[in-house]
Design a protein that fits this description.
Blueprint: E1 3-10, E2 19-25, E3 28-33, H1 36-43, E4 49-55, E5 65-70, E6 78-88, H2 90-97, E7 108-109, E8 113-121, E9 133-137, E10 150-154, E11 158-160, H3 167-170, H4 174-187, E12 195-198, H5 204-215, E13 219-224, H6 227-235, E14 240-243, H7 249-256, E15 261-266, H8 270-276, E16 280-288, E17 302-305, H9 312-323, E18 331-336, H10 340-348, E19 355-359, H11 360-365
Parallel strand pairs: 1-5, 12-13, 12-15, 13-14, 15-16, 16-17, 18-19
Antiparallel strand pairs: 1-2, 2-3, 4-5, 4-7, 6-8, 6-10, 6-19, 8-9, 9-11
Helix pairs in contact: 4-5
Bound molecules: NADP nicotinamide-adenine-dinucleotide phosphate.
NADP nicotinamide-adenine-dinucleotide phosphate is lined by residues 89-91, 175-176, 179, 199-200, 202-206, 223-226, 229, 244, 267-270, 272, 289-290, 306-308, 347, 350-353.
Length: 366
């Protein structure tokens, strides 16, 4: 991974001889003047620069670069978090490739979820204190992302981290947990005794969704493609599993639940999304997590799109579910920040069980 340099110090470019942060990139120089507050914060122990992973250009995993960036200073209502773990998901691949335009300027540090420790709160009356262990769901992304040693976030994006698991594991929780919870409670409104089909059930969202659906009193049917995935799901207590490689798999769902299931959480897209509609009962409902939203006007079926956004209260509820032993978090692999490209290749292959997490602490130790 190529590393670019950023310097902090007195600069002739800075207003009235003040401090500036200067980023030199392949001959192009970027300079940001440091405000007086910035300078005071740094004098009070805030580091000047940090290592991050981001993109200057859209493209493949090789576009991910190690960057030295200024450490942002929190304003009132914001919190600066020293990142421990940053979760990686297929959505990051969308941002990296330019497929998903988040309307953020380049260079852009990727990563929409983090775990870590509060390094500084922007005001005295903040609900968070230095040293608090937190998790953050960072969409809409306000500044730079979580693949970094520090991340700045509005306070309402954060929640206390669960204490029952480590901080690296906790980085697997925000996007998947928020999405699974939003879909099952608000969008699908799952009731006790209902049947729910979860596709891509072994992925990050699916892993938590099958557990939350059971917690809501529903019976879960899951799709899986590989024997290792079936084993993984059985380990999560899922007994009804159909193979999505069988083109007739919705018929297998009907064999288990004559007349079809009440609801579908669809996270796979493509032909699986199209076929999943056939697994529903008349009047059933489907939440479509991918861009492949099947149209189904017959049989009174509703197909509902999903857009998960930051919500500290929901995130806190999910964190508590982990502490109450209601949710098991699964991380397939932890990689150092500098191996973000490898992490992207893994999620792009679409066979991850649980989540891939980047360890920002590994960067500090390097
Ligand atoms: N709209 C939103 O707000 C929102 C928020 C979060 C996530 N999402 C979306 O949710 C989706 C799921 O993401 P994720 O990270 O949880 O999971 P993921 O990593 O995309 O899913 C991995 C799992 O999917 C299974 N799979 C692969 N191809 C499949 C197919 N054709 N049919 C059925 N299953 C298949 C694999 O099982 P095998 O290994 O057994 O093949 C694998 O274990 C993504 O598309 C993501 O962008 C949307």
């Amino acid at each position: 991974m190529r590393r670019r340099a950023l310097a902090a110090g007195p600069s002739p470019g800075a207003a009235r001889g003040g401090l500036a942060l200067a980023w030199v990139d392949d001959g192009k120089e970027r300079v940001r003047a440091m405000s007086e507050t910035d300078a005071m914060e740094r004098a009070a122990g805030l580091p000047e620069t940090m290592t991050a992973v981001g993109i200057e250009h859209y493209g493949g995993p090789d576009r991910l670069e190690l960057m030295e960036m200024p450490v942002p200073v929190p304003a009132p209502g914001e919190v600066l978090v020293r990142v421990h773990g940053a979760g990686v998901g297929i959505w990051d691949v969308g941002v990296r490739s330019g497929h998903w335009d988040m309307e953020r300027p380049l260079p852009l540090v990727l990563g929409l979820e983090a775990s870590g420790v509060v390094f500084r709160a922007g005001s005295e009356d903040s609900a968070f204190r230095e040293g608090d262990a937190v998790i953050a769901y960072l969409y809409p992304l306000p500044y730079q992302g979580a693949y970094a040693e520090y991340v700045l976030a509005p306070e309402r994006y954060l929640a206390p981290a669960p204490t029952r698991i480590g901080l690296i594991e906790a980085a697997a929780l925000p996007v998947a947990g928020m999405t699974a919870h939003l879909v099952l409670t608000d969008i699908l409104d799952i009731q006790p005794g209902e049947t729910v089909l979860v596709t891509a059930a072994t992925g990050g969202v699916g892993t938590l969704a099958v557990q939350m659906a059971r917690e809501l009193g529903a019976t879960v049917v899951a799709t899986a493609g590989r024997e290792s995935s079936r084993e993984y799901l059985r380990g999560l207590g899922v007994e009804e599993i159909v193979d999505y490689h069988d083109e007739d798999w919705p018929a297998r769902v009907w064999e288990l639940h004559p007349g079809g299931v009440d609801a579908v959480l669809e996270g796979a897209g493509g032909t699986t999304a199209e076929r999943a509609v056939a697994a529903l009962r008349d009047g059933g409902r489907m939440a479509a997590l991918t861009e492949d939203v099947p149209s189904e006007s017959s049989r009174d079926i509703r197909v509902l799109p999903v857009a998960t956004e930051a919500d500290g209260e929901r995130l806190a509820r999910i964190s508590r579910m982990v502490d109450e032993g209601k949710l098991e978090v699964r991380v397939q692999e932890v990689l150092p920040l500098r191996e973000a490209a490898r992490a992207h290749e893994l999620v792009e292959a679409r066979h991850v069980h649980g989540k891939i997490v980047l360890d920002a602490g590994a960067e500090r130790a390097a």
